[in-house]
Design brief:
Distance between the termini: 43 Å
Order of helices and strands: HHHHHEEHHHHEEHH
Mean pLDDT: 91
CATH architecture of the largest domain: Alpha-Beta Complex
Helix content: 40-55%
Structural class: mainly alpha
Radius of gyration: 19 Å
CATH superfamily of the largest domain: Nitrile hydratase alpha /Thiocyanate hydrolase gamma
CATH topology of the largest domain: Nitrile Hydratase, Chain A
């Protein structure tokens, strides 16, 4: 641990987390290498890049897109993505006239195999309650302004079903390869709080 002359400027939650990890390590209850491995898995191997691959495949392969919308879990498994928190994933499609946004009103149910760990705002009680009551306002506050004629549907993830949004493919990307499209897709667009930028 590094010491400084001034006060530690990190958020209190970071300080508590570090102290708890040190205590559990000292008592032999956890191995920091194992914890680091789990974090790396969910940040790098199981994460938004997997979801982006699913979206890009759906954008470039109409038959895969149909399978994905009919049975998200099976179609996602075709690409090798499955596991904890991904037992039943339903995929819904955003269009110019309909927009889906995902929330878990009870806790933070989230499709880990395709989106990784949920971001802090997704777990925040304010997001979880407000996006249900005033989705257009919350989306606007997050930088997504939708026209008044776009119908917004809020999808509530639960322990039984996780939702994944198939965002609209941006105009002007028709010549891009599947791999090039992957780099455009963001986690936020697959939750429905953003659109994919061209």
């Amino acid at each position: 641990m590094t010491t400084t002359d001034g006060p530690d400027e990190r958020p209190p939650v970071d300080l508590r987390t570090e102290a708890l990890e040190e205590l559990l390590t000292e008592r032999g209850l956890i191995d920091p290498k194992v914890i680091d491995g789990i974090i790396t898995t969910y940040e790098s191997n199981v994460g938004p890049l997997n979801g982006a691959r699913v979206v890009a495949k759906a954008w470039t392969d109409p038959e895969y897109r149909q399978r994905l919308l009919a049975d998200g879990t099976a179609a996602i498994k075709e690409l090798g993505f499955s596991g904890a928190m991904g037992w039943h994933i339903v995929v819904v499609e955003n269009t110019p006239t309909t927009h889906n946004v995902v929330v878990c009103t009870l806790c933070s149910c989230y499709p880990w195999p395709v989106l990784g760990l949920p971001p802090s705002w997704y777990k925040d009680p304010a997001y979880r309650s407000r996006v249900v009551k005033e989705p257009r306002t919350v989306l606007s506050e997050m930088g997504l302004d939708l026209d008044d004629d776009v119908q917004i549907t809020v999808r509530d993830s639960t322990a039984e079903v996780r939702w994944l949004v198939l965002p609209e493919r941006p105009a002007g990307t028709e010549q891009l390869s599947e791999e090039e499209l992957v780099s455009l897709v963001t986690r936020d667009s697959m939750v429905g709080v953003a659109k994919v930028a061209p």
